[in-house]
Amino acid sequence: MARVQIRSDHVQLDEPVLVEGLPGAGLVGKIAVDHLVKTLEMEYYGAFYCEGLPQVAVYEGNSSPVRPPVRLYADEETNLMALQSDVPVSPTQASEFASCVTGWIEEHDIFPLYLSGLAEEKSDIPELYGIATGDAEPVLDEMGIVPPRGGGMVTGPTGALLHKATETDLDAVGLIVQTDAQFPDPEAARITLEHGVGPIADIDIDTSRLIERADEIQNAREQLAERLQEATRDESSEAQPIRGFQ
Fold it and tell me: What is the DSSP string of 10-72?
């Protein structure tokens, strides 16, 4: 049965903003939410137990407590919540998962921000777009966040969440940022946090660490490209991880 288990009911929030961080194109949402949780030192608030989520046990380095794979974090000072996920949601179960999450959001008067990467050729600075459900469009207008230039769709579990928000007339915003589909993209996550999440939630977010990670990944990309250019056919079939971003 779908349920949400609250661990920190002493945390007091008033119609908070929730930032969703499911894995997706460029890992934009996951990188952004992981950064929020760490930078704001957000408190472990609870966990989702929904259809479509694998039954796995998650543990952190140098820490023995086991936690579920999809968790909620909260920060009383900023009135912010974050949905952090260490696993993908099964596409066949995305609808059930979206119903589980949306039902809880509606019950607690939460304003969700759903994050998605748009895999397309981008300039040096990724462009950020916004879409809305319910009566949330004025939020985008107030922040100067424009809609995508062309039509399209958001797929996967984040798309299912936006679809459910439309079905239930829930006020929600989808933030869509240009991203690299083949590599984790901290620069796209930085743009999303600085120009989307921060202004909408009315908070300042230190993204200096994401800038450092963007430089690290760019260097790794250049080294990989050089290796592929110099490699023989046999060598070029080798796959090597980009350290720290798996």
Answer: T---SS-EEEEE---GGGHHHHHHHHHHHHTT-EEEEEEE-TT-----EE-TT---EE-SEEE
Q: What tokens does 236 get?
A: 């070029």
Residue type, 145: I
Instruction: Check residue 171 and give its pLDDT.
Output: 98
User: Residue 237 and residue 235: Cα distance in Å, rounded?
Assistant: 5
Domains, the chain, with CATH or none: 3-206 (3.40.50.10900)
239: Cβ–Cβ under 8 A, 6 or more apart, which residues? Answer: none
| Residue pair 176/129 in contact by the 8 Å Cβ criterion | yes
- Read off the tokens for 127: 């462009």
Please give the backbone phi and psi of residue 148, each rounded to the nearest 5 degrees, phi first.
Answer: -60, 150
Q: Could you tell me if 224 and 182 are in contact, meaning their C-beta atoms sit under 8 angstroms apart?
A: no
- Tens-place pLDDT, residues 72-101: 999 999 999 999 998 888 888 899 999 999
pLDDT tens track for 20-60 = 999 888 889 999 999 999 999 999 999 999 877 888 888 88
Q: What is the DSSP string of 168-218?
A: HT--EEEEEEEE-SSS--HHHHHHHIIIIIHHHHT-----HHHHHHHHHHH
Q: In this model, does residue 246 exceed pLDDT 50?
A: no
